[in-house]
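Lecture 7 notes: from sequence to structure.

We start with a single chain of 154 residues. Read the sequence below before looking at the structure.
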Amino acid sequence: MKIGVVSDTHGLLRPEVAPALAGVERILHLGDVGKASILKDLEKIAPVTAVRGNVDRDGACGKLPETEVLLLEGRYIYMLHDLKTLHLDPAAGKFAAVLFGHTHVPNFYRKKGVLYFNPGSCGPRRFELPVTVGVLTIGADGELAAEIIPLNLA
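Now the structure, written as tokens:
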């Protein structure tokens, strides 16, 4: 299963996002959506699950949950915006991955057998950070692989 992972759009869905996510079966938005229309536009690519970020205070985005738990291909995925607000031990909770945003810094690592994945930001550029999306692949064996995809901006 191939899953698109995005965060921190802050009201801007760049045209480069759709081609970067071509072929994904789901899209997970990790908060700071900015405008509900972004989720509708992402739905044109694949079904979307989203959580609320610190800028998502009003309207439909303000009603998004702070966290979400998904069961995908037999693996539990925990979604939240800011990793600093994580108040559980993902390994003890049998989570395969924790997906988060907030920092705009794309990275992934494993800790106690859990994949921690931040796809970075695909919204307005912040400082000198790259503009990126992520892809999470769940293999037939249940193994998770993270990939960070830089967007080629004109």
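The mean pLDDT is 96. Keep this in mind for problem set 3.
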